[in-house]
Amino acid sequence: MMGVEEFSEKLVDYGRGCSDVGLEMVDRAGKEDYNAVLIPSRGTIPIFLGALYSISIYGREGFKECEEFLERLKMPSFFASHLECMGLDDLIKKDYQGNRFALLLPFTADFTGKLEWGSEPIRKYWTKVMESFTLPPEKRHESREFCSFMKTLREVEKRKGLADIYESIPRVESFILIDTLISGKAAYEILKSFESMEMYPYTILVCDQRRERLRKPEYKAYLEGNGRVKMIDVDSLVTEDKGASYLGVYSVAYPDLMGKSMENGGFWAAESWILDWEIDSYSGQSFRKLMGALQKAIRKGIGVENSSLEDDVAEFLTHAKMERDLEDIKRYLNENVISPYFQDSFEIYRTKTGVLMVSFPEEKVRGFSL
After folding, report:
1. What whole-number distance in Å separates Cα of residue 368 and Cα of residue 370?
2. What are phi and psi of 105, to 5 degrees?
3. Does the pLDDT at position 62 exceed 80?
4. Of 7, 110, 323, 324, which is least packed with CB atoms within 10 Å of its CB?
5. Phi/psi at 172 (nearest 5 deg)?
6. pTM
7. What is the DSSP secondary-structure string of 226-241?
8. How far is CA 368 from the centre of its chain?
9. Using CA atoms, how far apart are residues 334 and 328, in angstroms rounded to an integer?
10. Nearest-5° angle of CA 73, CA 142, CA 33?
11. What is the H or E stretch that residue 191 is in?
12. Cα dist. 265→13, 155, 260, 262, 268 in Å?
């Protein structure tokens, strides 16, 4: 684990990467007027927040394109706490119509190591969900994948309000994608899946260890040779796969339902994201401390801040060591997330990358209509 001094140094470089993402988003908006930004991974969330914060700094420093970019950006209401801690909560107060917007979809597949189907069907599923957003809202239910995503939110979980938000999001006319890169596997699978559907989103990849682990020739050649991919190198993705205190979100997966869907000849990536303030106020407080340090790191990188990060980082690292008890998380899920059909009948464990795996009794799975 990094010490305070090393983490502080890495966070300044990470903040520079966030600023580069922000400027690339603004520059790309001037070249192709995309109306959506796809966020497909937990690791992208703090980077995206940092990118928006850096755009706001540049806007205040007189960069008109940055100011105009934020004036046209709409963020979903469920993102309010994350935006508030960055001083950007005005972004949720706008209407979707006529504005660019962020679309968060859980392409998370880093829990599939011991499961028979692997990660590719999950990436394919979510690219098809994304494809459904290119339809008008009234036609979105023609997509089997979109319907099963809504089933996750409404019937596996009891999150009708969130389902309503996704159902009402306007048609995506064109979009860019922002993601992190470690080995290149996820980015390769996602972009190849989009390519198979003749979709070619402009993609910004923030690359860990300056692409040191991008070694597989197939991934390296495809990503580095792709004219629609912008790669931004950083020393370390200090937040990657570290849990909700670092990422601001929990990923919840239901592998029993995924397995059952394959028996019926299809695939349903039954999973969702839960923002940390909903499930766990402690990791939410940790994430808020991290975002405070990140803001200072970004200002240092831009040249409008001179003070040290180390006290802020020390406070965050101390706070983040206290991981929420799994029984408390299970209790929260049972009371607030899991639908009545599955309530009081599930087990939960947490993977090394922080994914919450929820398993149901076989009789419950058999009795659930897919």
Report:
1. 6
2. -130, 135
3. yes
4. 323
5. -80, 120
6. 0.95
7. -TTEEEEE-S--TTTT
8. 28
9. 10
10. 25
11. helix 185-196
12. 46, 21, 9, 5, 10
